[in-house]
Design brief:
This protein is an all-alpha fold and about 575 residues long. Helix content is about 65%, strand content about 0%. It has 32 helices and no strands. Helix 5 packs parallel to helix 7 and helix 24 crosses helix 25. It comes from Otus sunia. One of its GO terms (cellular component) is NELF complex. InterPro entries: COBRA1. Pfam families: COBRA1. This is Negative elongation factor complex member B.
Protein backbone atom coordinates (compact mmCIF):
# COMPACT_ATOMS: atom_id res chain seq x y z
CA UNK A 1 0.00 0.00 0.00
CA UNK A 2 2.88 2.38 0.82
CA UNK A 3 5.27 0.98 -1.84
CA UNK A 4 7.76 3.57 -3.06
CA UNK A 5 7.02 6.41 -0.61
CA UNK A 6 10.27 5.94 1.30
CA UNK A 7 12.29 6.25 -1.94
CA UNK A 8 10.78 9.71 -2.41
CA UNK A 9 11.45 10.71 1.20
CA UNK A 10 7.76 10.69 2.14
CA UNK A 11 6.76 9.24 5.49
CA UNK A 12 4.40 6.27 5.44
CA UNK A 13 2.46 4.07 7.85
CA UNK A 14 5.56 2.12 8.82
CA UNK A 15 7.29 5.35 9.88
CA UNK A 16 4.32 6.32 12.08
CA UNK A 17 4.32 2.85 13.62
CA UNK A 18 8.00 3.11 14.45
CA UNK A 19 7.56 6.64 15.90
CA UNK A 20 4.71 5.52 18.15
CA UNK A 21 6.63 2.45 19.27
CA UNK A 22 9.66 4.44 20.37
CA UNK A 23 8.00 7.59 21.83
CA UNK A 24 6.96 8.42 25.42
CA UNK A 25 4.10 10.78 24.48
CA UNK A 26 2.03 9.22 21.65
CA UNK A 27 -0.44 12.12 21.28
CA UNK A 28 2.34 14.66 20.76
CA UNK A 29 4.04 12.29 18.32
CA UNK A 30 0.83 11.95 16.30
CA UNK A 31 0.33 15.72 16.28
CA UNK A 32 3.89 16.25 15.08
CA UNK A 33 3.47 13.59 12.35
CA UNK A 34 0.27 15.31 11.15
CA UNK A 35 2.00 18.71 11.05
CA UNK A 36 4.98 17.42 9.12
CA UNK A 37 3.02 15.33 6.61
CA UNK A 38 -0.28 17.18 6.31
CA UNK A 39 -1.23 19.73 3.63
CA UNK A 40 1.31 22.55 4.12
CA UNK A 41 -1.09 25.44 3.71
CA UNK A 42 -1.09 28.03 6.58
CA UNK A 43 -4.70 29.12 6.02
CA UNK A 44 -5.86 25.49 6.26
CA UNK A 45 -4.72 25.01 9.88
CA UNK A 46 -7.44 27.32 11.26
CA UNK A 47 -10.13 25.70 9.07
CA UNK A 48 -9.51 22.09 10.10
CA UNK A 49 -11.05 22.47 13.60
CA UNK A 50 -14.20 23.73 11.83
CA UNK A 51 -14.42 20.34 10.06
CA UNK A 52 -13.95 18.64 13.44
CA UNK A 53 -17.01 20.48 14.76
CA UNK A 54 -19.04 19.00 11.88
CA UNK A 55 -17.81 15.50 12.62
CA UNK A 56 -15.89 15.17 9.35
CA UNK A 57 -12.95 12.79 9.85
CA UNK A 58 -9.53 14.05 8.78
CA UNK A 59 -9.14 10.92 6.63
CA UNK A 60 -12.24 11.82 4.62
CA UNK A 61 -10.95 15.38 4.12
CA UNK A 62 -7.48 14.29 3.05
CA UNK A 63 -8.88 11.59 0.77
CA UNK A 64 -11.12 14.20 -0.88
CA UNK A 65 -8.14 16.55 -1.44
CA UNK A 66 -6.05 13.66 -2.71
CA UNK A 67 -8.70 12.54 -5.24
CA UNK A 68 -9.11 16.09 -6.50
CA UNK A 69 -5.36 16.55 -6.93
CA UNK A 70 -5.06 13.22 -8.71
CA UNK A 71 -7.76 14.20 -11.23
CA UNK A 72 -6.00 17.53 -11.86
CA UNK A 73 -2.71 15.70 -12.32
CA UNK A 74 -4.25 13.23 -14.80
CA UNK A 75 -5.68 16.15 -16.80
CA UNK A 76 -2.29 17.88 -16.76
CA UNK A 77 -0.47 14.74 -17.97
CA UNK A 78 -2.93 14.40 -20.88
CA UNK A 79 -2.43 18.10 -21.69
CA UNK A 80 1.38 17.81 -21.63
CA UNK A 81 1.10 14.93 -24.14
CA UNK A 82 -0.52 17.32 -26.65
CA UNK A 83 1.32 20.62 -26.18
CA UNK A 84 4.67 21.90 -27.44
CA UNK A 85 7.23 20.17 -29.62
CA UNK A 86 7.37 16.38 -29.64
CA UNK A 87 10.80 16.18 -28.05
CA UNK A 88 9.90 18.61 -25.28
CA UNK A 89 6.62 16.98 -24.36
CA UNK A 90 8.14 13.48 -24.29
CA UNK A 91 11.08 14.74 -22.18
CA UNK A 92 8.62 16.12 -19.62
CA UNK A 93 6.69 12.85 -19.54
CA UNK A 94 9.89 10.79 -19.21
CA UNK A 95 11.03 12.94 -16.27
CA UNK A 96 7.62 12.59 -14.64
CA UNK A 97 7.71 8.81 -15.15
CA UNK A 98 11.18 8.61 -13.61
CA UNK A 99 9.97 10.45 -10.49
CA UNK A 100 6.67 8.61 -10.11
CA UNK A 101 7.44 5.04 -11.25
CA UNK A 102 8.51 3.94 -7.76
CA UNK A 103 4.86 4.51 -6.71
CA UNK A 104 3.40 2.35 -9.49
CA UNK A 105 2.31 -0.37 -7.05
CA UNK A 106 0.52 2.12 -4.80
CA UNK A 107 -3.18 1.78 -5.82
CA UNK A 108 -4.05 5.44 -5.28
CA UNK A 109 -1.12 6.77 -7.37
CA UNK A 110 -1.02 3.97 -9.95
CA UNK A 111 -3.53 5.62 -12.39
CA UNK A 112 -1.19 8.63 -12.73
CA UNK A 113 1.86 6.49 -13.47
CA UNK A 114 -0.13 4.43 -15.97
CA UNK A 115 -1.40 7.61 -17.63
CA UNK A 116 2.17 8.89 -18.07
CA UNK A 117 3.24 5.56 -19.62
CA UNK A 118 0.19 5.52 -21.90
CA UNK A 119 1.21 8.84 -23.48
CA UNK A 120 4.83 7.85 -24.04
CA UNK A 121 5.44 6.39 -27.53
CA UNK A 122 8.47 4.54 -26.16
CA UNK A 123 8.50 3.58 -22.49
CA UNK A 124 12.02 2.73 -21.22
CA UNK A 125 12.62 -1.00 -21.70
CA UNK A 126 13.60 -1.52 -18.05
CA UNK A 127 10.22 -0.25 -16.89
CA UNK A 128 8.35 -2.32 -19.50
CA UNK A 129 10.10 -5.44 -18.18
CA UNK A 130 9.07 -4.59 -14.61
CA UNK A 131 5.45 -4.14 -15.72
CA UNK A 132 5.52 -7.39 -17.72
CA UNK A 133 6.94 -9.33 -14.76
CA UNK A 134 4.11 -8.24 -12.43
CA UNK A 135 0.71 -9.71 -13.37
CA UNK A 136 -1.25 -6.99 -11.56
CA UNK A 137 0.73 -4.16 -13.19
CA UNK A 138 0.45 -5.79 -16.63
CA UNK A 139 -3.29 -6.14 -16.23
CA UNK A 140 -3.63 -2.51 -15.09
CA UNK A 141 -1.61 -0.86 -17.86
CA UNK A 142 -3.24 0.69 -20.92
CA UNK A 143 -3.35 -1.08 -24.28
CA UNK A 144 -0.91 1.54 -25.64
CA UNK A 145 1.69 0.26 -23.15
CA UNK A 146 0.82 -3.38 -23.76
CA UNK A 147 1.45 -2.89 -27.50
CA UNK A 148 5.04 -1.90 -26.68
CA UNK A 149 5.39 -5.06 -24.58
CA UNK A 150 3.71 -7.33 -27.16
CA UNK A 151 5.76 -6.25 -30.16
CA UNK A 152 8.86 -7.85 -28.62
CA UNK A 153 7.02 -10.76 -26.95
CA UNK A 154 5.17 -12.78 -29.58
CA UNK A 155 4.31 -15.60 -27.15
CA UNK A 156 2.67 -13.18 -24.69
CA UNK A 157 0.76 -11.51 -27.52
CA UNK A 158 -0.31 -14.95 -28.75
CA UNK A 159 -1.69 -15.75 -25.28
CA UNK A 160 -3.80 -12.57 -25.43
CA UNK A 161 -5.04 -13.17 -29.00
CA UNK A 162 -5.71 -16.92 -28.78
CA UNK A 163 -8.95 -16.74 -26.68
CA UNK A 164 -10.33 -14.12 -29.09
CA UNK A 165 -9.66 -16.34 -32.11
CA UNK A 166 -11.36 -19.29 -30.39
CA UNK A 167 -14.34 -17.07 -29.54
CA UNK A 168 -14.56 -15.92 -33.18
CA UNK A 169 -14.66 -19.48 -34.56
CA UNK A 170 -17.24 -20.50 -31.95
CA UNK A 171 -19.46 -17.55 -32.89
CA UNK A 172 -19.34 -18.55 -36.58
CA UNK A 173 -20.19 -22.18 -35.77
CA UNK A 174 -23.07 -21.10 -33.53
CA UNK A 175 -24.59 -19.18 -36.45
CA UNK A 176 -24.23 -22.16 -38.79
CA UNK A 177 -25.91 -24.50 -36.28
CA UNK A 178 -28.54 -22.02 -35.10
CA UNK A 179 -32.04 -23.47 -34.62
CA UNK A 180 -33.48 -20.44 -36.41
CA UNK A 181 -33.75 -21.73 -39.97
CA UNK A 182 -34.68 -19.08 -42.51
CA UNK A 183 -34.06 -18.39 -46.16
CA UNK A 184 -34.07 -14.64 -45.48
CA UNK A 185 -31.73 -14.54 -42.47
CA UNK A 186 -28.81 -16.90 -42.91
CA UNK A 187 -25.05 -17.01 -42.36
CA UNK A 188 -24.41 -14.59 -45.24
CA UNK A 189 -27.13 -12.06 -44.37
CA UNK A 190 -25.12 -9.54 -42.27
CA UNK A 191 -23.35 -6.87 -44.32
CA UNK A 192 -19.53 -6.71 -44.18
CA UNK A 193 -19.65 -3.48 -42.17
CA UNK A 194 -22.03 -5.05 -39.62
CA UNK A 195 -19.77 -8.07 -39.24
CA UNK A 196 -16.76 -5.84 -38.61
CA UNK A 197 -18.51 -4.35 -35.58
CA UNK A 198 -18.30 -7.75 -33.86
CA UNK A 199 -16.59 -7.92 -30.47
CA UNK A 200 -13.57 -9.96 -31.59
CA UNK A 201 -12.75 -7.83 -34.65
CA UNK A 202 -13.08 -4.63 -32.61
CA UNK A 203 -10.87 -5.95 -29.79
CA UNK A 204 -8.17 -7.12 -32.22
CA UNK A 205 -8.31 -3.77 -34.03
CA UNK A 206 -7.80 -1.96 -30.73
CA UNK A 207 -4.98 -4.29 -29.69
CA UNK A 208 -3.14 -3.68 -32.97
CA UNK A 209 -3.69 0.09 -33.09
CA UNK A 210 -1.28 1.44 -35.72
CA UNK A 211 1.42 -1.11 -34.98
CA UNK A 212 2.45 -2.88 -38.21
CA UNK A 213 4.50 -5.45 -36.28
CA UNK A 214 1.46 -6.56 -34.24
CA UNK A 215 -0.70 -6.66 -37.39
CA UNK A 216 1.84 -8.95 -39.06
CA UNK A 217 1.86 -11.17 -35.98
CA UNK A 218 -1.95 -11.56 -36.08
CA UNK A 219 -1.80 -12.40 -39.80
CA UNK A 220 0.84 -15.02 -39.05
CA UNK A 221 -1.35 -16.52 -36.31
CA UNK A 222 -4.27 -16.68 -38.78
CA UNK A 223 -2.15 -18.34 -41.49
CA UNK A 224 -0.80 -20.89 -39.02
CA UNK A 225 -4.25 -21.74 -37.65
CA UNK A 226 -5.71 -21.95 -41.16
CA UNK A 227 -2.97 -24.41 -42.14
CA UNK A 228 -3.42 -26.42 -38.96
CA UNK A 229 -7.22 -26.65 -39.03
CA UNK A 230 -8.27 -25.84 -42.65
CA UNK A 231 -10.98 -23.70 -41.01
CA UNK A 232 -11.99 -21.08 -43.58
CA UNK A 233 -13.38 -18.71 -40.92
CA UNK A 234 -9.79 -17.63 -40.25
CA UNK A 235 -9.76 -16.30 -43.83
CA UNK A 236 -12.89 -14.27 -43.06
CA UNK A 237 -11.21 -12.77 -40.00
CA UNK A 238 -8.13 -11.87 -42.07
CA UNK A 239 -10.30 -9.81 -44.45
CA UNK A 240 -12.50 -8.33 -41.70
CA UNK A 241 -9.49 -7.18 -39.69
CA UNK A 242 -7.95 -5.37 -42.67
CA UNK A 243 -11.27 -3.67 -43.53
CA UNK A 244 -11.82 -2.69 -39.88
CA UNK A 245 -8.46 -0.87 -39.96
CA UNK A 246 -9.52 0.62 -43.32
CA UNK A 247 -12.73 1.97 -41.71
CA UNK A 248 -10.61 3.69 -39.05
CA UNK A 249 -8.25 5.03 -41.74
CA UNK A 250 -5.20 3.41 -40.16
CA UNK A 251 -3.03 4.24 -43.18
CA UNK A 252 0.16 3.13 -41.41
CA UNK A 253 -1.10 -0.46 -41.90
CA UNK A 254 -3.41 -0.21 -44.94
CA UNK A 255 -0.66 1.38 -47.06
CA UNK A 256 1.78 -1.47 -46.40
CA UNK A 257 -0.67 -4.38 -46.82
CA UNK A 258 -0.46 -5.30 -50.54
CA UNK A 259 -3.95 -6.83 -50.34
CA UNK A 260 -5.65 -3.62 -49.16
CA UNK A 261 -7.10 -2.30 -52.42
CA UNK A 262 -8.05 -5.77 -53.66
CA UNK A 263 -9.84 -6.52 -50.36
CA UNK A 264 -11.56 -3.11 -50.43
CA UNK A 265 -12.90 -3.78 -53.94
CA UNK A 266 -13.96 -7.33 -53.08
CA UNK A 267 -15.64 -6.05 -49.91
CA UNK A 268 -17.89 -3.85 -52.08
CA UNK A 269 -18.80 -6.91 -54.20
CA UNK A 270 -19.61 -8.95 -51.07
CA UNK A 271 -21.86 -6.13 -49.89
CA UNK A 272 -23.82 -6.32 -53.19
CA UNK A 273 -23.50 -10.15 -53.35
CA UNK A 274 -22.49 -9.70 -57.00
CA UNK A 275 -19.33 -8.91 -58.98
CA UNK A 276 -20.31 -6.33 -61.60
CA UNK A 277 -18.30 -5.65 -64.78
CA UNK A 278 -16.54 -2.52 -63.44
CA UNK A 279 -15.34 -4.19 -60.24
CA UNK A 280 -14.44 -7.34 -62.18
CA UNK A 281 -12.02 -5.24 -64.26
CA UNK A 282 -10.52 -3.75 -61.08
CA UNK A 283 -10.05 -7.14 -59.44
CA UNK A 284 -8.48 -8.50 -62.61
CA UNK A 285 -6.10 -5.54 -62.66
CA UNK A 286 -4.91 -6.37 -59.14
CA UNK A 287 -4.34 -10.04 -60.03
CA UNK A 288 -2.55 -9.21 -63.28
CA UNK A 289 -0.48 -6.57 -61.47
CA UNK A 290 1.36 -9.09 -59.26
CA UNK A 291 4.96 -8.56 -60.39
CA UNK A 292 7.73 -11.07 -60.71
CA UNK A 293 9.46 -11.48 -57.39
CA UNK A 294 6.30 -10.46 -55.49
CA UNK A 295 4.40 -13.72 -56.07
CA UNK A 296 4.17 -14.29 -52.32
CA UNK A 297 1.30 -11.78 -52.23
CA UNK A 298 -0.77 -14.43 -54.04
CA UNK A 299 -0.78 -16.41 -50.78
CA UNK A 300 -2.51 -13.54 -48.99
CA UNK A 301 -4.83 -12.83 -51.93
CA UNK A 302 -5.84 -16.49 -52.05
CA UNK A 303 -6.63 -16.38 -48.32
CA UNK A 304 -8.80 -13.29 -48.87
CA UNK A 305 -10.61 -15.13 -51.70
CA UNK A 306 -11.00 -18.27 -49.55
CA UNK A 307 -13.23 -16.30 -47.15
CA UNK A 308 -16.67 -18.03 -47.36
CA UNK A 309 -18.29 -14.62 -47.94
CA UNK A 310 -16.04 -14.11 -50.99
CA UNK A 311 -16.68 -17.66 -52.27
CA UNK A 312 -20.44 -17.10 -51.80
CA UNK A 313 -20.33 -13.87 -53.83
CA UNK A 314 -18.21 -15.39 -56.61
CA UNK A 315 -20.38 -18.54 -56.84
CA UNK A 316 -23.66 -16.57 -56.90
CA UNK A 317 -22.22 -14.32 -59.62
CA UNK A 318 -21.13 -17.40 -61.61
CA UNK A 319 -24.65 -18.92 -61.52
CA UNK A 320 -26.12 -15.57 -62.60
CA UNK A 321 -23.64 -15.29 -65.49
CA UNK A 322 -24.46 -18.83 -66.65
CA UNK A 323 -28.16 -17.99 -66.76
CA UNK A 324 -27.42 -14.84 -68.75
CA UNK A 325 -25.29 -16.86 -71.20
CA UNK A 326 -28.21 -19.25 -71.80
CA UNK A 327 -30.39 -16.28 -72.77
CA UNK A 328 -27.65 -14.86 -75.00
CA UNK A 329 -26.95 -18.23 -76.67
CA UNK A 330 -23.27 -17.85 -75.72
CA UNK A 331 -20.78 -20.46 -74.55
CA UNK A 332 -18.90 -20.06 -71.21
CA UNK A 333 -15.49 -19.85 -72.89
CA UNK A 334 -16.65 -16.72 -74.75
CA UNK A 335 -17.34 -14.76 -71.53
CA UNK A 336 -14.27 -12.96 -70.04
CA UNK A 337 -16.24 -12.02 -66.91
CA UNK A 338 -17.15 -15.64 -66.24
CA UNK A 339 -13.55 -16.76 -66.78
CA UNK A 340 -12.38 -14.14 -64.26
CA UNK A 341 -14.89 -15.40 -61.66
CA UNK A 342 -13.59 -18.95 -62.19
CA UNK A 343 -10.01 -17.69 -61.87
CA UNK A 344 -10.79 -16.07 -58.50
CA UNK A 345 -12.76 -19.11 -57.30
CA UNK A 346 -9.81 -21.31 -58.25
CA UNK A 347 -7.36 -19.04 -56.41
CA UNK A 348 -9.57 -18.99 -53.29
CA UNK A 349 -10.15 -22.74 -53.26
CA UNK A 350 -6.42 -23.34 -53.70
CA UNK A 351 -5.43 -21.13 -50.74
CA UNK A 352 -4.58 -23.94 -48.33
CA UNK A 353 -2.43 -25.83 -50.86
CA UNK A 354 -0.60 -22.64 -51.88
CA UNK A 355 0.23 -21.54 -48.32
CA UNK A 356 1.13 -25.10 -47.31
CA UNK A 357 3.43 -25.73 -50.26
CA UNK A 358 4.79 -22.14 -50.35
CA UNK A 359 4.57 -22.38 -54.15
CA UNK A 360 2.98 -19.07 -55.09
CA UNK A 361 1.47 -19.70 -58.51
CA UNK A 362 -2.13 -19.39 -59.63
CA UNK A 363 -3.72 -22.86 -59.91
CA UNK A 364 -4.08 -24.05 -63.47
CA UNK A 365 -7.70 -24.13 -64.64
CA UNK A 366 -8.87 -27.39 -66.21
CA UNK A 367 -10.13 -26.75 -69.73
CA UNK A 368 -12.90 -29.34 -69.33
CA UNK A 369 -14.43 -27.29 -66.52
CA UNK A 370 -15.16 -24.56 -69.08
CA UNK A 371 -15.74 -26.67 -72.19
CA UNK A 372 -17.76 -29.55 -70.68
CA UNK A 373 -18.98 -28.99 -67.11
CA UNK A 374 -20.41 -25.47 -67.41
CA UNK A 375 -22.21 -26.23 -70.73
CA UNK A 376 -23.68 -29.30 -68.96
CA UNK A 377 -24.96 -27.05 -66.17
CA UNK A 378 -26.40 -24.69 -68.78
CA UNK A 379 -28.21 -27.65 -70.37
CA UNK A 380 -29.99 -28.22 -67.03
CA UNK A 381 -31.20 -24.60 -67.17
CA UNK A 382 -32.43 -25.24 -70.76
CA UNK A 383 -34.22 -28.43 -69.59
CA UNK A 384 -36.10 -26.33 -67.01
CA UNK A 385 -37.10 -23.71 -69.59
CA UNK A 386 -38.19 -26.40 -72.07
CA UNK A 387 -40.27 -28.23 -69.47
CA UNK A 388 -41.95 -25.02 -68.31
CA UNK A 389 -42.83 -24.05 -71.89
CA UNK A 390 -44.19 -27.57 -72.60
CA UNK A 391 -46.40 -27.35 -69.54
CA UNK A 392 -48.01 -24.19 -70.92
CA UNK A 393 -48.74 -25.62 -74.38
CA UNK A 394 -52.18 -27.11 -75.16
CA UNK A 395 -52.14 -30.80 -74.25
CA UNK A 396 -55.00 -32.22 -76.39
CA UNK A 397 -52.75 -33.75 -79.05
CA UNK A 398 -49.88 -34.91 -76.80
CA UNK A 399 -49.45 -36.72 -73.53
CA UNK A 400 -47.77 -35.11 -70.53
CA UNK A 401 -44.02 -34.74 -71.07
CA UNK A 402 -42.11 -36.06 -68.05
CA UNK A 403 -39.36 -33.98 -66.45
CA UNK A 404 -35.86 -35.38 -67.23
CA UNK A 405 -34.91 -37.68 -64.37
CA UNK A 406 -31.39 -38.74 -65.28
CA UNK A 407 -28.12 -36.84 -65.10
CA UNK A 408 -25.02 -37.44 -67.22
CA UNK A 409 -22.41 -39.64 -65.58
CA UNK A 410 -19.81 -37.00 -66.44
CA UNK A 411 -21.65 -34.47 -64.22
CA UNK A 412 -21.37 -36.74 -61.17
CA UNK A 413 -17.71 -37.38 -61.99
CA UNK A 414 -16.98 -33.63 -62.15
CA UNK A 415 -18.57 -33.13 -58.71
CA UNK A 416 -16.37 -35.89 -57.31
CA UNK A 417 -13.07 -34.90 -58.88
CA UNK A 418 -13.06 -31.14 -59.52
CA UNK A 419 -13.30 -28.74 -56.58
CA UNK A 420 -14.46 -25.71 -58.59
CA UNK A 421 -17.06 -27.78 -60.48
CA UNK A 422 -18.29 -29.13 -57.13
CA UNK A 423 -18.60 -25.64 -55.61
CA UNK A 424 -20.54 -24.33 -58.61
CA UNK A 425 -22.70 -27.47 -58.69
CA UNK A 426 -23.61 -27.01 -55.02
CA UNK A 427 -24.54 -23.38 -55.56
CA UNK A 428 -26.71 -24.40 -58.53
CA UNK A 429 -28.55 -26.82 -56.21
CA UNK A 430 -29.09 -23.95 -53.75
CA UNK A 431 -30.31 -21.77 -56.62
CA UNK A 432 -32.96 -24.25 -57.84
CA UNK A 433 -34.07 -24.97 -54.26
CA UNK A 434 -34.56 -21.26 -53.66
CA UNK A 435 -36.67 -21.18 -56.84
CA UNK A 436 -38.84 -23.98 -55.37
CA UNK A 437 -37.88 -26.17 -58.36
CA UNK A 438 -38.64 -29.58 -56.86
CA UNK A 439 -38.13 -31.50 -60.11
CA UNK A 440 -34.62 -30.15 -60.74
CA UNK A 441 -33.73 -30.63 -57.06
CA UNK A 442 -34.74 -34.32 -57.02
CA UNK A 443 -32.97 -34.88 -60.33
CA UNK A 444 -29.60 -33.48 -59.16
CA UNK A 445 -29.70 -34.57 -55.50
CA UNK A 446 -28.24 -38.09 -56.04
CA UNK A 447 -25.05 -36.50 -57.42
CA UNK A 448 -24.37 -34.95 -54.00
CA UNK A 449 -23.86 -38.22 -52.12
CA UNK A 450 -20.22 -38.37 -53.25
CA UNK A 451 -18.55 -35.02 -53.87
CA UNK A 452 -15.04 -33.57 -53.80
CA UNK A 453 -13.78 -33.68 -50.17
CA UNK A 454 -17.40 -34.28 -49.08
CA UNK A 455 -18.18 -30.59 -49.78
CA UNK A 456 -21.91 -31.40 -49.96
CA UNK A 457 -21.76 -32.35 -46.28
CA UNK A 458 -19.95 -29.16 -45.23
CA UNK A 459 -21.59 -26.93 -42.64
CA UNK A 460 -21.96 -23.84 -44.83
CA UNK A 461 -23.69 -25.71 -47.67
CA UNK A 462 -26.00 -27.65 -45.30
CA UNK A 463 -26.83 -24.44 -43.41
CA UNK A 464 -27.91 -22.78 -46.68
CA UNK A 465 -29.66 -25.90 -48.00
CA UNK A 466 -31.76 -26.40 -44.86
CA UNK A 467 -32.78 -22.73 -45.04
CA UNK A 468 -33.79 -23.01 -48.71
CA UNK A 469 -35.67 -26.29 -48.10
CA UNK A 470 -38.15 -24.39 -45.92
CA UNK A 471 -39.51 -22.99 -49.22
CA UNK A 472 -40.37 -26.57 -50.24
CA UNK A 473 -42.10 -27.25 -46.92
CA UNK A 474 -45.28 -28.70 -48.47
CA UNK A 475 -43.26 -31.32 -50.38
CA UNK A 476 -42.22 -32.94 -47.08
CA UNK A 477 -45.65 -34.56 -46.89
CA UNK A 478 -44.75 -36.66 -49.97
CA UNK A 479 -43.07 -40.03 -49.46
CA UNK A 480 -41.01 -39.77 -52.67
CA UNK A 481 -39.55 -36.39 -51.71
CA UNK A 482 -38.66 -37.43 -48.14
CA UNK A 483 -37.13 -40.72 -49.26
CA UNK A 484 -34.92 -38.96 -51.81
CA UNK A 485 -33.88 -36.22 -49.39
CA UNK A 486 -33.42 -38.15 -46.16
CA UNK A 487 -32.71 -41.77 -47.15
CA UNK A 488 -30.99 -40.91 -50.43
CA UNK A 489 -28.87 -38.02 -49.15
CA UNK A 490 -28.78 -37.02 -45.48
CA UNK A 491 -28.84 -40.46 -43.85
CA UNK A 492 -26.00 -41.71 -46.06
CA UNK A 493 -23.62 -39.53 -44.03
CA UNK A 494 -25.31 -39.17 -40.61
CA UNK A 495 -23.53 -42.09 -39.00
CA UNK A 496 -20.04 -40.94 -40.07
CA UNK A 497 -20.49 -37.15 -39.88
CA UNK A 498 -21.94 -35.69 -36.71
CA UNK A 499 -22.39 -32.25 -38.28
CA UNK A 500 -24.81 -33.79 -40.85
CA UNK A 501 -26.73 -35.41 -37.99
CA UNK A 502 -27.08 -31.99 -36.37
CA UNK A 503 -28.27 -30.28 -39.55
CA UNK A 504 -30.94 -32.97 -40.20
CA UNK A 505 -32.24 -32.57 -36.65
CA UNK A 506 -32.27 -28.77 -37.11
CA UNK A 507 -34.35 -29.21 -40.28
CA UNK A 508 -36.82 -31.60 -38.65
CA UNK A 509 -37.20 -29.34 -35.61
CA UNK A 510 -38.38 -26.70 -38.06
CA UNK A 511 -40.46 -28.84 -40.48
CA UNK A 512 -41.51 -31.93 -38.49
CA UNK A 513 -45.18 -30.90 -38.67
CA UNK A 514 -45.01 -31.11 -42.49
CA UNK A 515 -43.64 -34.68 -42.61
CA UNK A 516 -46.03 -37.67 -42.87
CA UNK A 517 -46.38 -39.40 -39.44
CA UNK A 518 -45.12 -42.80 -40.66
CA UNK A 519 -42.03 -41.22 -42.24
CA UNK A 520 -41.43 -39.07 -39.19
CA UNK A 521 -41.47 -42.15 -36.96
CA UNK A 522 -38.90 -43.98 -39.11
CA UNK A 523 -36.71 -40.85 -39.22
CA UNK A 524 -36.90 -40.52 -35.45
CA UNK A 525 -35.58 -44.09 -35.10
CA UNK A 526 -32.87 -43.57 -37.72
CA UNK A 527 -31.66 -40.34 -36.07
CA UNK A 528 -31.51 -41.66 -32.51
CA UNK A 529 -28.11 -40.72 -31.04
CA UNK A 530 -25.55 -43.41 -30.27
CA UNK A 531 -23.27 -43.56 -27.23
CA UNK A 532 -20.57 -41.86 -29.31
CA UNK A 533 -22.81 -38.93 -30.29
CA UNK A 534 -21.89 -35.50 -28.96
CA UNK A 535 -23.94 -33.44 -26.52
CA UNK A 536 -25.19 -31.12 -29.29
CA UNK A 537 -26.79 -34.06 -31.19
CA UNK A 538 -28.37 -35.46 -28.01
CA UNK A 539 -29.76 -32.05 -27.08
CA UNK A 540 -31.29 -31.52 -30.55
CA UNK A 541 -32.75 -35.04 -30.56
CA UNK A 542 -34.33 -34.46 -27.12
CA UNK A 543 -35.84 -31.19 -28.36
CA UNK A 544 -37.29 -33.00 -31.39
CA UNK A 545 -38.66 -35.81 -29.21
CA UNK A 546 -40.34 -33.28 -26.90
CA UNK A 547 -41.95 -31.52 -29.86
CA UNK A 548 -43.23 -34.81 -31.29
CA UNK A 549 -44.63 -35.84 -27.90
CA UNK A 550 -46.58 -32.59 -27.74
CA UNK A 551 -48.03 -33.29 -31.21
CA UNK A 552 -49.24 -36.78 -30.34
CA UNK A 553 -53.05 -36.91 -30.11
CA UNK A 554 -54.60 -37.53 -26.71
CA UNK A 555 -56.12 -41.01 -26.04
CA UNK A 556 -59.58 -39.51 -26.50
CA UNK A 557 -58.66 -38.32 -30.00
CA UNK A 558 -57.07 -41.65 -30.94
CA UNK A 559 -60.26 -43.65 -30.22
CA UNK A 560 -62.19 -43.91 -33.45
CA UNK A 561 -65.96 -43.97 -33.69
CA UNK A 562 -67.01 -47.36 -35.13
CA UNK A 563 -68.70 -47.40 -38.51
CA UNK A 564 -72.46 -47.89 -38.18
CA UNK A 565 -72.67 -49.82 -41.44
CA UNK A 566 -70.64 -52.83 -40.27
CA UNK A 567 -72.19 -55.51 -38.05
CA UNK A 568 -69.58 -55.05 -35.30
CA UNK A 569 -70.17 -55.49 -31.57
CA UNK A 570 -71.09 -52.34 -29.72
CA UNK A 571 -68.06 -50.38 -28.48
CA UNK A 572 -68.48 -48.39 -25.23
CA UNK A 573 -68.29 -44.66 -25.77
CA UNK A 574 -65.51 -42.91 -23.81
CA UNK A 575 -66.76 -40.77 -20.94
CA UNK A 576 -65.23 -37.64 -22.43
CA UNK A 577 -67.47 -37.74 -25.48
Amino acid sequence: MYAGLQELGVANGEDLKETLTNCTEPLKAIEQFQTENGVLLPSLQSALPFLDLHGTPRLEFHQSVFDELREKLLERVSAIALEGKLEERYKKLEDLLEKSFSLVKMPSIQPVVMCVMKHLPKVPEKKLKLVMADKDLYKACAVEVKRQIWQDNQALFGDEVSPLLKQYILEKENILFSNDISVLHNFFSPSPKTRRQGEVVQKLTQMIGKNVKLYDMVLQFLRTLFLRTRNVHYCTLRAELLMSLHDLEVNEICNVDPCHKFTWCLDACIREKFVDNKRARELQGFLDGVKKGQEQVLGDLSMILCDPFAINTLALSTIRHLQDLVGQDTLPRESPDLLLLLRMLSLGQGAWDMIDSQVFKEPKMEAELITKFLPMLMSFVVDDHTFNVDQKLPSEEKGPIPYPSTIPEAYTKFLQENRIACEIGLYYILHITKQRNKNAFLRLLPALVETFSDLAFGDIFLHLLTGNLTLLGDEFALEEFCTSLFDGFFLTACSRKENVHRHVLRLLLHLHHKVAPAKLESLQKALEPTKQSGEAVKELYNQLTEKLELRKPSPAEVTETPSMELPLPTVPTPASR
